[in-house]
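Aim 2 progress update. The chain analyzed this quarter is reproduced below.
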Amino acid sequence: MKLYIHFGFPRTGTKTFQIHFFPNHPQINYLGRHPQIKPHLELQRPKLIDLINWLNKEDFDKRYSEILKKVKGLYLDPNKTNIISSESIINDDNFIDNDNFRITSRFASRIQFLFSKINVDVNFFGLIRNQSEIIPSTYTASKGVKLMGGEEIIQYLKTKNINKPIIKGFLNSFYYWELYKNLSKVVEEEKIKFFLYEKFRDDNYNFLLDLSNYLEIDPAISIKLLKYKSENRSSYYLKEDLRINSPFSIICFKLMKNFKNPNILFQNFNKKLLNLFKLLLIQMREFKRRDKEFLIIKKDKLIEQLNIIKNNSTLIKTYYRQDCLALKKELGLDIDKYDYF
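Predicted structure tokens:
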């Protein structure tokens, strides 16, 4: 029996897959996320993933029996494709470790070992994206990546002399060939698969054929579920962040987004109503004219820093060129078609 681990790079359609695809394909047994659609599914995955990901060696060894019991308690369907999807597998390395995907490799080694105890074959796959696009998109989605300045990121790309480990960790997390090399030290190479986000975005039909063949599921159903679907575009983050928008403008945007797509209007409806009342309360009681002026300044500053990153796409490509060349040569990925370098 097989289990597929989807490691979700930021800004590569991860939530689109978690909301529209993994939980809804009748040939997939989906173990976790996204709580927006089926909250009960979330109960099976995160504690196990977090335990495997975060515990140091001593604590992991101490809790091995407990973790193995959780593994044995997962329902894996012998007649379906079993999938666990998680952003934290990669994101934990982004800002915590800075050491050549050590946490990700440790996770892969541990999960392979644990599931081998119940005769389950584990495979790993994920989408990657042009670094000159994924970096500004991630910066936008995280509203400045924990207060990193765009100027500081570009300065680091030029000199590597800035003493900011968070910037180093953030940029190192997009060395895709390094990730593959480190995973292949603990996982057989044929059990690691990279897909291109650009193909999903630009050639949706053929991408879904490739993905479905890999997962051994019906591509016709995949295409029906995922064709032209998109969640959490980077522009949405700018429009929905209370730190840089007025409550009233967020309400208007959310209403427009939901009424534009009636399929999502009644998803988590009670939660949406509660958030609406909270925003209205802030608008009525606390929001003042000077607050609006202050938010405009903050938003303009964020956009200014974001544009600094976008305007240095050539520098970003140069920074990752050798990694991309190795990726193309060793894995045969058609990344030059999508302007990776």
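Confidence is low (pLDDT under 50) at residues 37-44. The longest helix spans residues 289-310. These observations will guide the mutagenesis experiments scheduled for the next reporting period.
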